[in-house]
Specification:
about 90 residues; mainly beta; 6-stranded antiparallel beta sheet; about 40% strand; globular
């Protein structure tokens, strides 16, 4: 992983690359994908607040994100804190 530190109110998120296919084997291009994405927080700027922590799984809007680095099986994306939609929590209760 790079030594990139987000500044201002940004979050660094890692997204695992997954080839999307239909049951019949057709590959679905990224352009048909949702306007939302899910990834794991790997870096937080000092001004981003305490709502998320490194290791949290978050959902965010794709608009306004910047790709920082592409690795073999993952992509690092810089996300403005305001574009976070929520984080997933582990819970036994429904």
């Amino acid at each position: 992983m790079s030594n990139f530190q987000p500044l201002n109110d940004h979050i660094l998120v890692k997204i695992k690359k997954q080839e999307k296919k239909t049951e019949s084997g057709l590959i679905i291009p990224d352009t048909t994908d949702s306007k939302r994405e899910v990834g794991e927080v790997v870096g937080i700027s000092p001004g981003a607040g305490e709502a998320v922590a490194v290791g949290d799984r978050v959902m965010f809007r794709k608009n306004g994100t910047e790709t920082i680095e592409e690795q073999d099986a993952a992509t690092l994306i810089l996300v403005p804190f305001k574009d976070l939609l929520g984080k997933y929590t582990e819970s036994d209760a429904i």
